[in-house]
Specification:
The complex is a heterodimer.
Chain A: H1 3-62, H2 65-84, H3 86-93, H4 95-118, H5 123-199, H6 214-273, H7 279-307, E1 315-317, H8 319-336, E2 340-345, E3 352-354, H9 356-373, E4 379-387, E5 392-399, H10 406-409, H11 428-438, E6 442-448, E7 452-460, H12 462-465
Parallel strand pairs in A: 2-4
Antiparallel strand pairs in A: 1-3, 4-5, 5-7, 6-7
Helix pairs in contact in A: 1-2, 1-3, 1-5, 2-4, 3-4, 4-5, 5-6, 6-7, 8-9, 9-11
Chain B: E1 5-9, H1 13-25, E2 29-33, H2 36-43, E3 50-54, H3 62-72, E4 77-82, H4 87-95, E5 100-103, H5 108-123
Helix pairs in contact in B: 2-3
Chain lengths: 468, 124
């Protein structure tokens, strides 16, 4: 559901709750008002009934005939009143009680009529009338009391309901806004995580069910962006590869042209000076041709060896033991060059997922470079560290050698680029770069002429790669 | 008639050896060098009519040889050879008054013709 709709829904529920509370309160107020009106009427009736009872006494005890007339007038007035306010009374006390009251009043009226007609004052009649009058008065007072009690009860009930409703509305608002905020917060933190991982070069997409809300739209936009970026990066890598193939081909051409030229020149000279050559000279010429072809063969084999995509044998490894093993390989070289080694291996490093031989090849290569860059008595430092923000393990190889000139820095990973006087093929760092990239890692270099060079190899942890 | 002196510089030993053999056949006096430094050292004491040099060498490269030769002996002819067939470098070399430019593999006959032509020009 869209967030906007969720908010609309929440507002809708709130309004509904408030309307319901309002209707309830209005209804209760109406009930109270009805009952209150009845009580006002009933007070009048009760007074009338009391007066009838007093007149009744006057008739029987004082022999006042006028009293009976006054009772009859009161009965007529009361009956008229009851008839007039029939509707409000029925609303307040219900049909049954109304008609019962009327019935008691009629009974009383009939009795008063009978006494009036017979003009009797005997104790039997007196007792009967008193009884009926008492019934009427008691019943009227009872329902008045009952209604008073009910008003009280309704007020208390209303008060409670209003209080509960208030808390219900507050609670609903809190829960709902919490849910929405958490919803948006979760989605946002996913997006933040994703963009962060994109900026580190990992083009994962968010694997969330495509919800139809705004966050879903953001997700799919970010996912599209990640896919596009990945496509672009592939294109860039591809064009870089093409450029690097250009450099490679030029290098290959140079490497191959020299022995080819030698063979060609030998052949041309051989033909030219053939007649003046002794048998031994001729054999020597051919031997030199053979040497040059051998040289070509070695170059081509080396190239093939480097170019061949080697199958990776990846396994879960701790970085430090790999470095220790590699050091054993280069120890002899270090001893000869009188170079000290300084190790700073961090403890409790997370495991990395590597091809041990390939990583050792790189480390040997780096160590060799460092040794060649340093004079006797130099220091080769190898440090390892965990970088929690990127979830990577870094291997840092530093020398205090002559450093790399700034104009060469951008080219050191190019094939056939070498600053070594002889012996350098210019393939070592190029191959190292490829291997590290195949490990989803990264290799950086910092160098200052006369101070030294630092290579930083950064490899993702097993955890980052999702390897158990 | 005194023999023309030719200096050949290339870090590939065979280039010097073969050029020497072939050019001596044609009556030139040839000295070969395996790097720019030793060649420049020799140039301090001896003038050559023609200097044939490889372009790309460790240390002192062909362009530096060219400049030094032109400074010391403006009439000496410089011929450049290289395994690195890069047109940009060739243009730069030509601008620096190089007589001719040969990509490897070198045709010795063409090299000789170029030398002959150069000496003819120089003799005028």
């Amino acid at each position: 559901m869209k967030i906007v709709n969720k908010i609309y829904l929440s507002n809708g529920v709130h309004i509904l709750l408030i309307v319901l509370i309002g209707i309830f309160a209005l209804h209760n107020l109406n009930t109270i008002l009805t009952k209150f009106r009845f009580i006002v009427i009933a007070e009048g009736l009760n007074t009338a009934f009391l007066e009838m009872r007093l007149a009744e006494k006057n008739y029987f005890l004082s022999g006042d005939d006028e009293a009976l007339v006054s009772i009859k007038i009161r009965i007529d007035q009361t009956t008229e009143t009851l008839r007039q306010v029939q509707q409000p009374i029925i609303l307040a006390v219900g049909n049954d009680k109304y008609w019962k009251l009327r019935y008691y009043l009629d009974e009383y009226a009939q009795l008063v009529d009978a006494i009036d007609r017979a003009h009797i004052r005997d104790p039997g009649a007196q007792k009967e009338l008193r009884q009926v009058g008492q019934n009427l008065k008691t019943f009227s007072e009872d329902i008045t009391d009952l209604e008073s009690e009910q008003i009280g009860a309704i007020i208390v009930h209303s008060k409670n309901i209003l209080l509960y409703s208030f808390w219900a509305v507050v609670l609903f608002a809190l829960i709902f806004s919490n849910v929405i905020v958490r919803n948006i917060g979760n989605s946002l933190s996913k997006v933040v995580g994703l963009t962060r991982s994109i900026s580190q070069g990992n083009f994962h997409t968010i694997e969330a069910k495509p919800s139809g809300d705004e966050m879903g739209a953001v997700f799919s936009a970010v996912n599209t962006m990640a896919e596009e970026l990945q496509k672009r990066e592939k294109e860039i890598v591809q064009s870089k590869k093409l450029a690097s193939i250009g450099v490679l081909v030029a290098g290959v051409a140079h490497e191959l042209n020299n022995p080819l030229n030698n063979i060609s020149m030998i052949a041309q000279t051989y033909a030219e000076v053939y007649d003046s050559l002794s048998r031994e000279d001729r054999i020597s010429f051919m031997e030199r041709v053979d040497e040059e072809t051998e040289r070509l063969r070695v170059i081509i084999n080396n190239l093939l060896d480097y170019a061949k995509p080697k199958e990776q044998h990846l396994s879960r490894m701790a970085a430090n033991p790999v470095i220790q093993k590699t050091l054993a390989l280069v120890q002899n070289m270090l001893d000869i060059s009188n170079i000290k080694i300084k190790l700073g291996l961090a403890r409790d490093l997370p495991d990395i997922y590597i091809d041990v031989h390939q990583i050792q090849q790189i480390l040997v290569n780096m160590a060799t470079n460092a040794i060649q860059a340093m004079d006797k008595g130099g220091v080769l430092s190898i440090d390892t560290r965990f970088v929690p923000e990127e979830d990577t393990v870094e291997i840092v190889i530093s020398d205090n050698g002559k450093g790399i000139a700034p104009e060469f820095i951008d080219h050191i990973f190019d094939p056939f680029f070498t600053t070594k006087e002889e012996s350098g093929t210019g393939l070592g760092l190029w191959v190292s770069y490829g291997i590290i990239k195949n490990h989803q890692g990264n290799i950086r270099v910092k160098s200052e002429v006369g101070v030294g060079t630092t290579f930083i190899i950064s490899l993702p942890t097993c955890n980052k790669l999702g390897i158990a | 008639m005194a023999k023309h002196g030719i200096m050949v510089i290339d870090d590939e030993k065979i280039v010097g050896d073969m050029a020497k053999l072939s050019l001596e056949q044609d009556g030139y006096e040839v000295e070969t060098f395996l790097n720019g430094e030793s060649a420049l050292e020799r140039l301090k004491t001896k003038r050559f009519d023609v200097v044939v040099t490889d372009l790309k060498m460790k240390g002192v490269d062909g362009l530096e040889v060219l400049r030094t030769v032109k400074k010391l002996y403006p009439t000496t002819v410089v011929i450049m050879i290289t395994a690195f067939a890069n047109l940009d470098v060739a243009i730069e070399a030509l601008r620096d008054d190089v007589h001719d430019f040969f990509p490897k593999p070198v045709k010795i006959k063409e090299l000789k013709a170029s030398i002959k032509r150069a000496l003819g020009t120089a003799a005028k």
